[in-house]
Amino acid sequence: MDNNKKEILEELEKHNGIVSSACKSIGLPRSTYYSWLNSDPEFKSQVDDIQEVAIDFVESKLMEKIRGVTVLAKEGTDGDEDLTYSLPPSDTAIIFYLKTKGKKRGYIERMEVDNLTPIQVMNVDPFTNSDDTTGNDSPSQNIIAP
């Protein structure tokens, strides 16, 4: 792997997998980055690993928000003593986690359709109770399959 690819991989690690920031920091066009990504399997594998580490980092921050956290800030700018403060658990973080990871337990807002079950559609004239296309007294039935 050439030095330019190694350099962008290092920058991706520094910038938590954010492509535009990494490319900008070394003056590499994003089009070059994406060309390498699509043409070099080894490069793509290393980028994928960096992306996974970035996702792990963000998930750890989400869990901190869910649990709540006590933060110790080192000595203030005016020479005061260390500052400790607590952040309570975040309802928003909890809801987000349950909507994404708790679907199997029913934490969803909408019904998900699998498009595998055929549905039956009936064409009925609501005023005459007859088929609106044939004029028959019984409604026609159409089966729509995925």
Structure overview:
47% of the residues lie in helices and 14% in strands. With 146 residues, it is of the alpha+beta class. The protein has 3 domains: 1-58; 68-110, no CATH class; 113-146, no CATH class. Helix 1 runs parallel beside helix 4, helix 3 (30-39) crosses helix 4 and helix 4 crosses helix 5. The longest helix has 27 residues, at 41-67. The chain is flat. The two termini are 46 Å apart. The model has no long low-confidence stretch (mean pLDDT 83).
Helix content range: 40-55%
> Count the strands?
4
Number of domains: 3
| Quaternary class | single chain
Shape: flat
Low-confidence stretches: none
In which order are the strands of the major sheet placed?
A: 1-2
Quote the beta fraction: 5-15%
Which structural class is indicated by helix and strand composition?
Answer: alpha+beta
Please trace the helix and strand order, writing H or E for each element: HHHHEEHEE
Please count the helical segments: 5
Radius of gyration: 28 Å
Mean of all residue-level pLDDT scores = 83
Distance between the termini: 46 Å
Characterize the largest beta sheet: strand count, sense, and whether it forms a barrel: 2 strands, antiparallel
Secondary structure elements and their pairing?
Elements: H1 3-14, H2 19-26, H3 30-39, H4 41-67, E1 69-73, E2 83-87, H5 91-101, E3 119-123, E4 140-144
Antiparallel strand pairs: 1-2, 3-4
Helix pairs in contact: 1-2, 1-4, 3-4, 4-5
Question: Could you provide a short overview of the structure?
Answer:
With 146 residues, the protein is α+β, with helices and mostly antiparallel strands.
